[in-house]
Write a structure and sequence with these properties.
Blueprint: H1 3-12, E1 16-24, E2 30-39, E3 46-56, H2 59-66, H3 76-101, E4 110-121, E5 134-138, H4 141-148, E6 152-154, H5 157-162, H6 171-179, E7 185-191, E8 194-200, E9 210-216, H7 219-228, H8 238-241, H9 247-254, H10 274-284, H11 291-313, E10 320-325, H12 332-341, E11 346-349, H13 360-374, E12 393-395
Parallel strand pairs: 1-4, 4-6, 7-10, 10-11
Antiparallel strand pairs: 1-2, 2-3, 4-5, 6-12, 7-8, 8-9
């Protein structure tokens, strides 16, 4: 037997595994590296976050990714070159983190790499009937495995699509495994570049879980801040706080056909970008409003779309707690908008249930890798789509 296959076989039978989860989202702020100790699999899964590091991306790094990011027309040569290059950059960051933590590659069982989404094309976004949904992430798993010496799982979203999903959101599985509760109804809201939530009714089985994207999280606000304020994001929502919500612009954005697509659904910055804002300004005659008013309106737009999506599915009579994660949870104005529109529930950080909010997505991919290697196929049903949890392509280091 090949030694890497033997190692894979052996670690599948271990009581626990040390897995590095990687996440780089549409905000392009940095690589989240979460070292997790995962015990068991399936409904017996327990996860402990041992170390967490976000390594910021430098501007030239961002510029390379942005040259092919969420665009219909890009250089095929540049895309091809960046696929292995990005993996090698991520590998260097992992090796840097391991050195900082006093660990070696032999101490780690698996890497779970989300990669960098370059283009996300759910069926609702493209009119080509001969094609289904598709998504593309770069950051080649073989290069990661060779450069770190660690068995790597990557390209998770393809199995989701192959089995009938849209490649997102994948949080449904990890949220269910580590955050479902016997007596508390929970909504786990993650506000990254795109916002999504998972509804976990008390005592639920996997078939009862519901998960969906809601629309934009930080993606348009961040892009607007980069273009007009030379800042990566609106810290604490302070720019938005100085503006006034423009109801005409808000209405023009909220009539987009995406919001008529039934839940669950998925989307990306291919739709929600600065061109989307400009088109809505033109339609609403708001091209001359201040930059601060635009930021205030984008902030309210994100809040409205999140709350509307929650209210579409979560029973109005349900007594539940909302646990927030992702970069958007640090935007005080955004969270105030959400709290005002959902006054009858508690909003807490996902830290309260043992999920470090900035590390949550990286942790969830570590859980997907654990299930692929050590779990049994589980199928979500109903509104979560019948998709197997065993996702990820396996790359061996030698």
């Amino acid at each position: 037997m090949h030694p890497s296959i033997q190692k894979l076989y052996d670690l599948a039978g271990k009581p626990s595994r040390k897995i590095i989860g990687l996440m780089s989202g549409t905000s392009l702020d940095g690589l989240d590296i979460a070292l997790c100790e995962v015990t068991g699999a399936g409904v017996t899964t327990q996860v402990k976050l041992l170390q967490f590091e976000t390594i910021p991306f430098k501007e030239d790094f961002k510029d390379k990714i942005l040259s092919i990011f969420s665009k219909q027309m890009v250089s095929l040569e540049q895309l091809t070159l960046l696929n292995p290059w990005l993996a090698l950059q991520h590998a260097a960051m992992i090796n840097q983190a391991l050195l900082k933590w006093g660990l070696q590659s032999k101490d780690i069982d698996l890497i779970a790499s989300h990669g960098q989404t370059i283009y996300h094309a759910p069926k609702s976004l493209h009119p080509q009937d001969e094609f289904g949904p598709a998504t593309l992430q770069i950051g080649d798993g073989d290069h990661l495995a060779i450069a770190t010496g660690i068995i790597t799982l990557s390209d998770f979203r393809q199995k989701h699509i192959a089995a009938g999903g849209e490649g997102a959101p994948l949080a449904v599985y990890g949220d269910y495994l580590v955050a479902s509760h016997a007596t508390e109804n929970r909504v786990l809201l993650n506000i990254g570049g795109i916002a999504n939530y998972t509804y976990l009714p008390a005592g639920c089985a996997l078939i009862d879980v519901f998960s969906t994207d809601t629309g934009p999280g930080n993606t348009m606000m961040d892009a607007f801040m980069r273009k007009h304020f030379n800042a990566p994001f609106d810290k604490d929502g302070m720019i938005a706080k100085e503006g006034v919500v423009n109801t005409n612009l808000l209405a023009a954005m909220e009539i987009d056909s995406f919001f008529k697509v039934p839940l669950p659904k998925t989307i990306g910055p291919e739709l929600f970008n600065l061109d989307f804002v400009s088109a809505a300004q033109k339609v609403s005659g708001t091209e001359s409003i201040s930059l601060h008013d635009i930021m205030a309106t984008l902030n309210k737009f994100t809040a409205n779309t999140i709350v509307n999506a929650i209210q579409q599915y979560v029973p109005k009579e349900a007594n539940y707690t909302l646990y927030a994660s992702g970069g958007g949870m640090h935007n005080k104005i955004l969270m105030e908008h959400i709290a005002k529109m959902l006054p009858n529930l508690k909003i807490q950080s996902s830290q309260e249930i043992g999920l470090q909010p900035d590390a949550k997505e990286a942790i969830l991919f570590a859980l997907l890798a654990n299930e692929c290697v050590a779990g049994a196929p589980m199928y979500a049903g109903g509104n979560a789509t019948k998709v197997p949890v065993a996702m990820g392509k396996i790359s061996l280091p030698y």
